[in-house]
Amino acid sequence: MSFKEQLSDKRKELRELRKAIPETFAGFVAMEQAASADAALDHKQKEYVALGIGIAIRCDACIVSHVNALVRLGATREEIADVSGMAVQMGGGPGLMYAAKALAAYDEFTAES
After folding, report:
1. Structural domains in the chain?
2. Residues near 108 by Cβ (< 8 Å), separated by ≥ 6?
3. Residue 94: pLDDT band by 50, 70, 90 thresholds?
């Protein structure tokens, strides 16, 4: 399954979860919006942090979601690779495998359709 298909499937799953637990979901969205807001770090910088954590903890959906957000925010392939390198350092060998996944996701999201 492509990264774009994974993102679409996860969004469908999240819509269903939102229907099942609307108050909890709304609370999470509020927390995400507050955490992502520009402050000492801007939103793009915070997405880099989130991607690094997603790689280090080996969260497929996190990688796809945050790479997609970073593409929309103008991230370059080199920036994704640099963040991936730091995540590898933090995550060890398994982080290396997920960093490769993050870079492949970037390549797919930026490829001409």
Report:
1. 3-110 (1.20.1290.10)
2. 2, 3, 4
3. confident
